[in-house]
Amino acid sequence: MMTRIREKRKKKVCKFDLEPGPRRCHISGMTHREDNRSNPIQKAALILAAAWSLSIAAGSLLAEDAPFRPPAVPLVTFDPYLSIWSEADHLTDDLTRHWTHRPHPLNSIIRVDGAPSRLMGPEPSTVPAMPQTSLEVTPTRSIYRFQDSKVRVTMTFMTPALPDDLEVFSWPLSYIIWSVESIDGASHDVTIFDSTSSAISVNKPDEDVVWGRDKATGVTSKLTGGGMTILHAGTAAQPILGSSGDNHRIDWGYVYAAARARQSSSAIGDLDTMIASFLRASEIPGQADSRLPRAANSEQPVLGFVFHLGEVKTKPVTRQVIVACDEIYAIKYFGVDLRPYWRRNGATIENVLRQADKEFSKIEKRCIEFDRELSADLTRAGGARYAKLCALAYRECVAGCGLAADQNKQPLFFTKENTSNGDIATVDVFYPMDPIWVLLSPTLTKATLVPIFSYAASWHWKFPNAPHDLGTYPLAPGRDDGGEGMPVEESGNMILLADAVCQADGNPNFVNPWWPQLTQWAKYLEQYGLDPENQLCTDDFMGHLAHNANLSVKAILALAAYGDMARRRGDAATAERYFQLAKTDAQHWIQAASDGDHSRLAFDKPNTWSQKYNLVWDRILGLNVFPPDVARAEVGYYKKMMQTYGLPLDSRTKLTKTDWCFWSATLSENDADFQGFISPIYDYMDKTTHRVPLVDSFFTTELGAGRPDFHARPVVGGLYIKMLADRATWKKWADRDHTKLGEWAPLPGKPQ
Q1: pLDDT tens digit sequence for 591-608
Q2: With contact defined as beta carbons under 8 Å apart, do 149 and 130 qualify?
Q3: Whether the model pTM is above 0.70
Q4: 461: containing domain
């Protein structure tokens, strides 16, 4: 029998009092010396409820689903500032909106043989909407199809967020593509109007804006037949990186709209005048509106284009406009203004727009191929419903982050806590997010970890545990007072993600510079992780909790993950010590957490339960710390607790977290159980009256209950965790990341 009592250590910790002392479990005075001879959870007989099996068999899982109705559709997305969505069933039902619900209007009208129809936007109401026949959302594209008696129109919004090409991934733009074909055998004269509002460039609609155009010049090629017309608008004040917050939009830099000059005419002016001119003569005023500056909500200034497609027959005719945002500077990082990653080598937005236009056909083909292959793998891993939810999550995850370059031109990827408080680089936000990047771009996972590693290694950070966040987006000055205290949570998160990177890379090279920090956090968890004191975890909206059993699981698995990294570094003795420590702790956990046929919410709270989603790393990282029966028992019990729209977070609430449900679902050993977890969530997203980007928190008992507080957050990248459970799939995608990284710059502002 092992006895491991730690000597008392006096160390400073975050935000709340922890009494340093022996490493104990505080349940009924039981110390770590107690015998672990029995395993109540493993011995429990797990009888699957008949209702569960019948619901799977009788439900829509075995039938062909009707088309999925996303609660909101990503249109033009790049980062937390350029993030425009349709929150309606039809693209013509409502204004397009920023994720904060503020109108960020995009408009499109088509004229077929002179007869106008709306394709995007609710105005003017006197113009009928062309019937929308379908909507398809793939990882990089949202595809709307319209049709009347004469033509079929396909309107595609494409963001080239290709994870194996960080250069293209970093472009701050989306394409809007129209494809028109005749369906009645006749040819038809077709023109299209498109506008991009200056409101996209302001935080408040009464801010003054200015505008202008680039000359129709550029690299002439056979592809473009000439140069581009580039229009822009932005605030007159330009307070670059001058503000921060959650419900906050950018008011520096410029919004751009660009199209091929020989395929379009263009103007900048008020929307109503442009639409009236287009409806009258299929043209827009040739002279730019000179009444500037003026408020964005005063005779709304827009960037307008008209495309003359000519006589359209059965062969589709396509046109496209590029909508972009140049932030100029992306993040204020410890007093230094960081450029967006795409600007690191001196590129201008005009360079990027012209390159994006020149390479449009190749980019479109790559996006289509990426979407097809990823969707096929998602379907194989978790079924059609899983694939649709992951497709919807992809651009939402991307647009919840900002990609900047440090002073060595290396990537730094900053999450924003949209709709929760606006924090930047929050560890327990990128912890649930990063499965998507561990799979598709280990480089981006590293780029989320480095700012926290660098901060923890600097003179700023005085605590033995990992930091929580670095500030409020886009300002990252650090939290030198310790910030929001989640010491066990964040220390475990950093270690687990670091090991995931090592396994994706097949070597420990990334963690070597940060080994002192990882070692410090492992020692912290060794003393304080098994039975966490009263503190917050990532589910902080539920309040403080002592003896948190799920948090303990995280700490135990983090010790094993640290051992795995030590093994990869060639330190066999440390590896063995931490593996054995984790295994012994796991046996102790089984005893302390047992509540019959499941485990407790907290060690001292009988007749409770909680999702043990952190267990998923035991399988994914191949740690094998907990016996398989532990996860098996949990899944069996969760099935009994399932509500109409999913599994609650724990016994205290009917609220759930979408990301954690997918992690718990991944504990399942068969497809029927996995579908049983995600199908109710799919139904909720398909039917909810909360028309917002994919929520990661909702009530499981009824549609529309409560406020949809958590949406548009990068944590939805956690839906991809199922893909990591298959090593071959993980390796296939991760191996495509060929980004050549150099040495990250030290944290700015180190005292001399």
Answers
A1: 999 999 999 999 999 999
A2: no
A3: yes
A4: 40-45+383-731
